[in-house]
Amino acid sequence: MNPRMIPPRPSDKGLVCSLAMHGQIESIVWDESQNGFNGTPTNSPVPKYPGFDLTAASSQYVDVGTGPTVVKTVAMWVKMDDITANTDYPIDLNGTDFLTIVNGTLTKNGFAAGTQVLYTDGVAAATTITLAKWHHIGITDTTGRDASDLDIGRETGNYSSGVVAGVRLYSSVLTAQQMKTLYDLTRWRYSI
Known about the structure:
Radius of gyration: 15 Å
CATH topology: Jelly Rolls
Strand content: 35-45%
Structural class: mainly beta
Number of helices: 1
CATH class: Mainly Beta
Order of helices and strands: EEEEEEEEEEEEEEEEH
Shape: globular
Largest sheet: 8 strands, antiparallel
């Protein structure tokens, strides 16, 4: 008898919110961490495997509302439609602490105090995003942020155009190796 091979999974240690977005029904995005931070697709974003296709001009985003009170790592997958003509807003924790993609460069906004490291495709301090290609982006932060108004694809009246998926928030700071492992273990879904 051969033992069944179970594919490796990213660590759930410290995971406080997981919005996979693949296989979701249109009216709710379930928090797979089972902590109850479900999202509501707003202004009819189109489910597009493995996530939601957002259009900035239509003010589309996923509204979670009150999220986890301590977030030290943010990780998600994005595939941007346009990286030169506008700024995209893939995630906003609270109206102050959010990530942007400006002219193809991942940027942090807010995140005062503490030490932050940006990640692209599992590489620390890498910030380059290319057009119409899936990228795993994230930030680690030694200061816990309160995701008191969590939005995916929006920051206070500013929006993203592209597909978003695989949002994971942790209450712990993932190491560089853990961020690389998270990228490696999830990238198969995003045709890399």
